[in-house]
Write a structure and sequence with these properties.
Elements: H1 2-18, E1 25-37, E2 41-48, E3 51-58, H2 60-63, E4 69-73, E5 82-88, E6 91-99
Parallel strand pairs: 4-6
Antiparallel strand pairs: 1-2, 1-5, 2-3, 5-6
Amino acid sequence: MKKLIIVLFFLALISPIFAEESPNMYYVNVSVEKIFPSSQGYIVQYRGQTGIRTIGIPNVWFSEAAGKGDLVRLPTAKDWPTMSVFYNNGEFSHVRLYVSPVKAHQTWGSVPQGTDVSRFFPDGDTFKLQF
C-alpha cells in the first residue's frame, strides 16, 4: 500500500511535464433567422452587423464520426436558434447549430424544388462568417 501511494505521488509530480499545451480555442455565436434543409446541407440565414447573411453547411459535416458540424435540438426558447462557430488557433474547427426539434417551427424553412443551392456550399473545409 505504501508503494502504491509513493508511485501515485510520483506520477502526480511528473504528469505536468507531459501535459500538452492548451490550444487557443474560442467561438463566435450568432443569432439564426432561418434554416433551410437542402439535399447538399443546411442553408443558414444569420444576423450580421450589416444585415442578414447566408451560409451553407454541408451534410457531410454532420454525418462523419468526428465531423465539423453538430446539430443540437433544444426546446424552443427566445434565444434559439443560434449558431456557434469554433476556432482553434485562429483556424476554423467546427460549427454547432442550436435549433428547435420541431420542423414546423417558424425558424425552419424549405427550399423550393429545383432551386440551385450550390453557391452556398464552397468546395473544401472552409467556413467563413461574414459580419
